[in-house]
Amino acid sequence: MHSPRFGLFLGQVGHDWPSLLDRFQMAEELGYDHAWLVDHFVDTDGDLSKPCMEAWTLLAGIAARTSRIRLSVLVSSNTYRHPALLLKEAVTVDHISGGRLILGIGSGWHEPEHRMYGFPFPPAAERVGRLEEAVQVLDALQRQERTTFHGRYYELEDAPFEPKPLQLPRIPLLIAAHRPRMLRLAARYADMWDTFPPIAGAATEGTEDTLEARIQALEGYCREVGRNPGELRRSTWTGGDVVRSEEAFLGWVNNLRSLGFTDFITGLPGPSHMESVRHIAAELLPELRAGRSV
Q1: Residue-range definition of the domain harbouring residue 108
Q2: Is the Cα torsion angle 255, 4, 244, 204 positive or negative in sign?
């Protein structure tokens, strides 16, 4: 049985380095379990004038200036980096952080961003196929002294990989999956699965299945590959509105706990509601982690 964990989806859009560092250090000081960036180069809501720094280089800097909180990108787009390069970046952050990284990855979804910067944006079926090969490469490089891989999309030939991550046998792998083929992939390869309700302008736009239906599908796919569904941590996220009050936060968490979710990630509300965030972090999160009803 996984104990619940709580995170903040902080993101980097619209923030400079001092502001971002303050936000992550605040999350650590408040006692959150993990905090998250996004893997985008522009504001996906459309305001292209907002600054948006690159996620993995930012994460390395944040790792060096924090000491306890787990760090990740929700999620790294497989279309932007070869998996061997991504893993070099991830293992570097794992070492800088002292073993606090979660490696979040997805197939990629924001087509305008790919077009703006010249990244190929294959059809969905190919993106999922590339991701399935990528997670095999990520796993093999961490476990093996030398890796040879001949796939449809990726080729490695007797590739060494040192240093290995601090977290053995591999960095915990989170896969964002919302549709059947991706759910199959998460069931086979992930340590942690992330999904969330349909949101316009996000990766879940256009999905029709409820969270309950996705959970049932994921559990079925786990059984198909001989895996206990209870092995996977299950995360979801929402905006900052639910941390504006104790009642809203508890209602959100308790509903999702009843569905089997283990990791609960929220955005931050505006400055006028930060006292509520501090209250929730100090008073509610310890009780929820201890399994007591609140």
Answers
A1: 5-289
A2: negative
